Amino acid sequence: MNIDKKEQIRIKRMISVYNMFVNIFWSVLNLTPISVYCYKYMHLRFFSTLLAISLSILFLPRSFFTLLQLSNTTGIYRKMGVHLINKYTQNGDIINGIIRRRIPGYKVVSNRNSSIKKLLVQTIVYEKFHLTMFVFFAFSTAYALLNSQLSWAFIIGVNNLVYNVYPALLQQYIRLKLGSFS
C-alpha cells in the first residue's frame, strides 16, 4: 500500500486522536474518584510521601518487570480474561476496527523487527505507569480502610483492579504475543 507522506501524517494523527479519546475516557473514569478522595480526606504529608514512593517505581529496570511476568505462556492471561480487555484499550480491537474501516489492511505492529521492538518498549512504559498507579491506589485504599472509609476503599480498590491491574497484565500478555513474531 503506497501512501504519500501527507497521508501518512494524516493517518497517524487520526489514530492518535482515536486513542486519545479512549485514554481520556478511562483516565477520567478512574482518576476522578481517587483525586476527590485524596483532596478531601488525605493529609498532605501522607499524600506527598505516597506520591514519592509510587513514583520511585518509574526508575526500576526492565529486568524487574520480567520478574513480575505471571507466566511464559498466554494461557493464564486468557483464563483471567486479560485478552478481553484489549477490546476497550488504546490500539485495542474496537479502535483498530474503526481504523480498518477507513484504512483496510491497517496493523498496529508489522512483522518488522523495528515495529516489534517499538511496541515491546511501549509495553514496559505502560506497565511502569500502571504499576506506579497500582501502588498509589493500593496505599490509598489502605489509608481509607484505616480511616474507616469503607465506601472509598471499595471504590478505589475496584478502580485499581480496572485501571491498573488488568492493564499491567495486558502489557505482559502483549509481550508474550509479540514473542511469536520474532
Fold and architecture overview:
- The protein is an all-alpha fold.
- The chain has one domain.
- 76% of the residues lie in helices and 0% in strands.
- It has eight helices and no strands.
- The chain has helices at residues 5-41, 44-55, 62-68, 75-79, 82-85, 93-102, 113-146, 150-179.
- Helix 1 runs antiparallel to helix 8 (150-179), helix 2 (44-55) runs antiparallel to helix 7 (113-146) and helix 7 (113-146) runs antiparallel to helix 8.
- The protein is globular and about 60 Å long.
- The two termini are 23 Å apart.
Order of helix and strand elements from N to C terminus: HHHHHHHH
DSSP E strands, number: 0
- The oligomeric state is single chain
Biggest sheet layout: none
How much of the sequence lies in strands comes to under 5%
Shape: globular
Q: What do the pLDDT scores average to? A: 89
Binned, the helix content reads over 70%
Q: Which ranges are low-confidence, i.e. pLDDT below 50, for 5 or more consecutive residues? A: none
Distance between the termini: 23 Å
User: How large is the count of helical segments?
Assistant: 8
Label the structural class. mainly alpha
Radius of gyration: 19 Å
Number of domains: 1
